Amino acid sequence: MREIVSDQTHSAGLEARTQRALNEEMVVSLLAKGGQYEVRSFGRVYDVDIITETCTCSDWQQRKPDGGCKHLRRVDHEIKQGHVPRPDGRLPM
């Protein structure tokens, strides 16, 4: 289960991957309904499936960390904050 992160959450005390998810420059876009997102980070592009909780990054492929990689966590955060459409494709209110 990924850590719950909001704008009110202070980064101190958050797990390191969650801190990186919030602090690193990333651009998140919905690719397809059903939870397919693209994350652009440091010149690389990763495919994230928020429903199956998978990512194409090496951290996820090699370690499958509890709570997900930083890309999964960032997508989760962006959805919860209403910055990107939800997995069903609906825009945030």
From TrEMBL:
PROSITE patterns: ZF_SWIM (PS50966). InterPro entries: Znf_SWIM. This is SWIM-type domain-containing protein. Residues 46-80 form the SWIM-type domain. One of its GO terms (molecular function) is zinc ion binding. It comes from the Archaea. Keywords: Metal-binding, Zinc, Zinc-finger.
